[in-house]
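Subject: sequence -> structure tokens, single chain

Hey, anyone have a minute? Need the predicted structure for the following. Not urgent.
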Amino acid sequence: MKLARNSYAWISVPFFLTAVLAAAGSWYISAIALVGFFFMLFFHRDPDRLPHGEGMVSPADGRVIQASEGLVVVFMGPSDVHVNRAPMDGTVQKTEYKKGGHLPAFLCQASSNQQNRITLKTDDGNVEIRQITGTIVREIICYVRPGDRVVRGERIGMIRFGSRVEVTIPRSYSLQVLLGDKVRAGETVIAVRRR
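Reply:
Had a minute. Here:
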């Protein structure tokens, strides 16, 4: 199983606890730690993905909780892969961390939560990807820096535990997803260029 970058500390702690508690004879507690270890393995998985068709792909796994001509918002639940991907080919113009609240990520007001904004310059104009935290852990990891060239579907970061990703849609594109649709980062086409 391929794991997300910078995830080994999160996985090794429950593994170490399981071993120590089992050696000490605390079988019940070590079993709980073992469950935690397997959850961390599952949560930090990072499967390879290939974009389907043409157009803008989802930057995150999860469920679409907002879909308009200018914006798509994806809520990532605990069972979703939390690695984020570039929706289009482009060059990173800037990354900007913003402090904010810690409301549950599925609420509309969570748009003002702690977040990292990535501005991507594309052939169809600038696209902004917002990695937004939820209430638990609140850790955003950004893999890209200004000047980096990214290709559609490439890994650009990760958010740990409950979170959401918002992405702006160029004016020349039309939506291909609806409210409630399940999407996969780097695979599901969410918008296509109008003919």
